[in-house]
Amino acid sequence: MKKAILILTMLFTAAMVLAGCGSSGTSTTSAGKEKIVIGYFPNINHVPAMVAKDKGFFEQQLGDGTTIEYKTFAEGGSFMTALKTGEIDAGLVGPGPAMNNFSTGADVKIIAGASTGGTVVLARKGVEINSVEDFAGKTFITPGVGCTHDVQYETYLEAEGITSQRIGGTMKHLTGQPAQYAAMLKSGKVDIAVAPEPWAAVIEKETGAEVVIGWDEVSFGETLPASVMVTSGKIIEENPDTVQKIIDAHKDAVKFINENPAEAQEITIKDIKETTGQELEKDVVELAWERIGFTHEVDAQAIQEFSDSSYALKFLKDKPDFKTLIDDSFLN
């Protein structure tokens, strides 16, 4: 039923765009209420959205006159497409897709942080990684080309002169949904998984894969926002009060997570099961939780340094300047 509703919502949004309507980034339901659509991914870096959804924080902040809907994504490219077309109004995404799209002229603004950490690099059981040089020639998988986890991994190895085939190196790169990484490692299709939590913890438990680059060792692991809250500049300009309420709800969720980690973990397990069909075990989530931090603050310097590396790795065509990408005025 939920999938049917999402399909109908997408068709309605597409029709509105083709008709030149709904250009402000928000829409109105048949009951006359304003509708806000929040996007996020089914991984632990995106728990603030799951908690806000479960606790009704967006509904509380935006009031009875607003209907809140949620849409989940497997990777940043489809999320950014949805933001650009008005299919979603705001949500959580990795900084990589936000920066890449901003650099090509997309109307996107980072308005808050959400989490840090959570990127873990694992080697398939039987694949020996005793030094950085051992990554050469291996097949690795990330959620998307130039995604946050991809840039972190390739930055770490580029310092040692090891690069992907995309830029003349020997590492073969595949992309796919993190929930499928364990099966791909077991089948031998990939040697290395660059996984966001909780999938790294799942892979460890289910496959015996070894962590070869920890979340606090991979490039930008402790400083870079692993997920950020974004919206469009157009929505900020036309609906600043709505954006403020979205941020206030997001801050409520982050506060709840830090004050109630056990309950937040239960919400995470439930939400991921509803979205992916996979029920995570409690010990897996607890392990993943140790590799994540939650904050609404956003580190502009870390984002610029990360983007400079994206450019050096040729994910970005032009040298980036993100002075206008971040709008933290709603955090005060």
Short description:
By secondary structure, this protein is of the alpha/beta class.
Q: Which percent band covers the strand fraction?
A: 15-25%
The CATH fourth-level homologous superfamily of the largest domain: Periplasmic binding protein-like II
Mean pLDDT level: 89
**How much helix, percentage-wise, in residues?**
40-55%
How does the major sheet shape up?
Answer: 7 strands, mixed
- Reported by name, the CATH topology of the largest domain is D-Maltodextrin-Binding Protein, domain 2
Shape designation: globular
The CATH C-level class name of the largest domain: Alpha Beta
Q: What does the radius of gyration come to?
A: 19 Å
User: What is the CATH architecture annotation of the largest domain?
Assistant: 3-Layer(aba) Sandwich
Cα separation of the termini? 39 Å
Structural class: alpha/beta
Family: Belongs to the bacterial solute-binding protein SsuA/TauA family.
Main location: membrane
Protein name: ABC-type probable sulfate transporter, periplasmic binding protein
Organism: Mesobacillus selenatarsenatis (strain DSM 18680 / JCM 14380 / FERM P-15431 / SF-1)
